[in-house]
Design goal:
The protein contains six helices and nine strands, in the order E-H-E-E-E-H-E-E-H-E-E-H-E-H-H. By secondary structure, the chain is of the alpha/beta class. The chain has a five-stranded mixed β-barrel, surrounded by four helices. Strand 6, helix 3 and strand 7 form a beta-alpha-beta unit. It is globular and about 45 Å long. The chain starts with 15 loop residues before the first strand and ends with a helix.
Length: 236
């Protein structure tokens, strides 16, 4: 049983799915990090693969750009394909002086200027946060692997080209998907986490190239895969 956006068969996705925004990054992860990766979805070129990492089934599929796109794909993975954990692996723009290019950021929470959370009809403001079990696992894996990480708040924005004052409140970086992912996980009773790499510094103007964004974020990817292994061990 598929969806208008996903042709994969039931059971084609592992319980943990890594979700980069870029389909080419999904392909890169499948080809360089997963054993026996098979293409399970290619509707609209949003490539989804399933393989193994350290003998653990893991999937990777692109989310596209922005909260509407992430909202569709993560909702379908949680509800139609019974995925338990989605780990966003993407790029962020730093708005904190403590971050530099290629730093790894763990999104403890995701502020947003989007109307996405209003769909739930709540009498107040919902705060999209990461699942603590995934976050704790990522922090532990980072310590084990010697990967320095910054843990804190992200801003998921519908607006790409602008500077922001959110940094004055300690928000670390800007991206465009995590708040929708966290909302969908909360609604589905599932787990989500954003493990991101700084690709741009909005304070200095420094930026990585398109090719570097697609192929050089290896620490972030390895960290997310280690979390997938930990989640499988906890289920066993």
């Amino acid at each position: 049983m598929g969806t208008p956006h996903n042709e994969a068969a039931q059971g084609a996705f592992a319980k943990t799915v890594l979700m980069p925004g870029d389909p080419l990054r999904a392909k890169f992860i499948a080809e360089h990090f997963l054993d026996g990766a098979k293409l399970v979805n290619n509707v609209r070129g949003v490539q989804g693969y399933t393989g193994t990492y350290r003998d653990t089934p893991v999937s990777v599929m692109a989310s596209g750009m922005g909260m509407p796109s992430m909202g569709i794909y993560s909702y379908e993975l949680f509800h139609t394909y019974d995925v338990d954990n989605i780990i966003r692996v993407g790029s962020v723009g730093s708005i904190s002086p403590r971050l530099k290019l290629r730093d790894v950021v763990l999104g403890q929470a995701a502020c947003t200027d989007s109307n996405y959370p209003r769909q739930y009809g709540l009498d107040g403001t919902f705060s999209p946060i990461a699942d603590f079990t995934l976050l704790e696992s990522a922090v532990s894996a980072a310590h084990r692997l010697g990967v320095e990480t910054a843990v804190g708040n992200l801003l998921s924005s519908d607006v790409f080209y602008r500077r922001t004052a959110w940094g004055r409140l300690g928000v670390l970086a800007v991206e465009m998907e995590s708040a929708a992912l966290y909302c969908n996980a909360a609604e589905a009773g599932k787990r989500a986490l954003a493990v991101c790499t700084v690709s741009d510094n909005l304070l200095t103007g420094e930026a990585l190239s398109t090719t570097e964004r697609q192929t050089s974020f290896t620490q972030m990817i390895t960290l997310a895969l280690e979390v997938a292994v930990d989640m499988a061990a906890r289920r066993a």
